[in-house]
Amino acid sequence: MLVKYINDNAISNKYFNATSCLNLEFEQSKMYKGRTYLLLGNFEKTYSLISRFEIGIRVIFKTLFSVGFGLFFESVREDWKSFWNGRKKQVIYSSSPFLATKILVKQGNATTQYKLGVMYLEGKGTIQSHQKAAKYFQLAANQNHAAAQNNLGLLYANGWGIAQSDQEAVKYYQLAAKQGNASAQCRLGDLYVHGRGVSQSYQKSFEYYQLAAKQGNASAQCKLGAMYAEGLGVPQSDQEAVEYFQLAANQNHAAAQYCLGVFYAHGRGVTQSDQKALEYCQLAANQGIATAQYSLGLMYAHGHCVPQSDQEAVKYYQLAANQNHTIAQRNLGLMYKNGQGVAQSDQEAVKYFQLAANQGDLTAQHNLEVMNENGQNIT
């Protein structure tokens, strides 16, 4: 029996004719030359009498060559076996999880169908394809696989690889939610908040968020915090809001960290603390929350909670502006106009004022008018 190891760049179609890699006769994974290989499958080739005769001649010459050099290669042993038995068994291991998963899918296993769907959804090991992701999620969902139902709902909600349908999204989210899938429960809560595919209901959204939050879903915990903060579907409570924001922030949820920073800044539900506000705002900004980046820019510009620094202000305004944050774009325009923290540039000032003005910022529009009147509107 030959064992063959193939990598991601050396795939032959013949390997897809392999028999089930669920065969317990073989190890499901092996280490080879420092890499992990998964069992892709095994197949058996049968030789005719003529082929066996050709193998016999070849193996005699190989044997003579091997013995002459004091060696006896593994391939020679396998050829002798093929000659006597009339067949050869080969086991294929691949460093590509995608290929191994694709072989397993043929067995109709729901978990493997789901995994292959995820690979297509994320483009891992293969070219990204929402259509193929939908196909395999559907196969697994038909077998009541909760995670696949949840992901199929996501595809329907966004129209990825499938016709957009809020009703179908609700259908599959509900199927998954009934099986306790926290992500589906949270997403179902989102649909109730916005009345997509269902009648709008803060009470229903709260119920689903709570189910997901109890399972530790950080997104649901953050959204519960927001509902308590605004009194949506529940009595308003800053203390409850802080509790849920904290739970989510502890799991590194960026939006929750920013919200917690805001509550510390204003002393809502907690003892006011500029230091805590800065700490959580920084955590959120580091994860790319544009509003947090803008807030840090404002703090540095005015020296609030941090040493005043125009350079740092520009840095954070720029990060937020790159994410289309309107006021950050306007403020960045002012920094360029006045040469604060950056080299003075009317051209850059106009650029950022224009970006903010395009989003309806009246102050930016006014600044452009003033620059135009002064002959500074550089295009």
Automatic annotation (TrEMBL):
<dbReference type="InterPro" id="IPR011990">
    <property type="entry name" value="TPR-like_helical_dom_sf"/>
</dbReference>
<dbReference type="InterPro" id="IPR050767">
    <property type="entry name" value="Sel1_AlgK"/>
</dbReference>
<dbReference type="Pfam" id="PF08238">
    <property type="entry name" value="Sel1"/>
</dbReference>
<dbReference type="InterPro" id="IPR006597">
    <property type="entry name" value="Sel1-like"/>
</dbReference>
<protein>
    <submittedName>
        <fullName>Uncharacterized protein</fullName>
    </submittedName>
</protein>
